Amino acid sequence: MIGRVDAVAAEPSLPDGVVIREVRERGDYARIAQLGESIWGHKDHSWLDNLAEERAADPEGLRIFVAEAGDLTVCAGWVRFPSGTEFATLWGGATLPAWRRRGIYRALVAQRAKLAAKRGRRYIEVDASDESRPILERLGFVAVTTTTPYVWSPPQVSG
Predict the structure, then answer these.
(1) pLDDT one-digit tens code per residue, 14-62
(2) How many CA atoms lie within 13 A of 97 on its CB side?
(3) What is the CB neighbour count within 10 angstroms for residue 90?
(4) Contact 8, 109 (CB under 8 A)
(5) Is the per-residue pLDDT at 159 higher than 70?
(6) Residues 9, 110: contact at Cβ < 8 Å?
(7) Contact status, residue 116 vs residue 125, Cβ threshold 8 Å
(8) 120-136 per-residue burial string, b: 16 or more CB within 10 A, e: under 16
């Protein structure tokens, strides 16, 4: 899905007691891992090591945010700024089921779009899930294609 930054960028509107904070410490990744485990049951958190390494190598090219209610991480998402393009790309955006329908995901999108606007980006691209798509459509995003994820397992070569 693609949206115009100027249509999406806004001051985030959050429920009382919820704040958006940028991830800066290594310990924050453990909280994102716990969020993912709570939502999807993912036990393999190795992808977060890659995310942390990418952030450390290029802190301006990747910005990571969490929405928190006290000590509880209720939503997380990040934005990448690929060079040589007018696009920012949004990733993550997962929200704990008990915290959905309160505008937290939308606020996290607005926060990242606001940053994209400051960086001079005109468009935002998101590979949206079925849960995120309706929210993004209400924000003005338009579906431009579909993807079909799969894992290719090549046949074993004997020999």
Answers:
(1) 999 999 999 988 889 989 999 988 988 878 888 888 999 999 999 999 9
(2) 5
(3) 25
(4) yes
(5) no
(6) yes
(7) no
(8) ebebbbbebeeebeebb
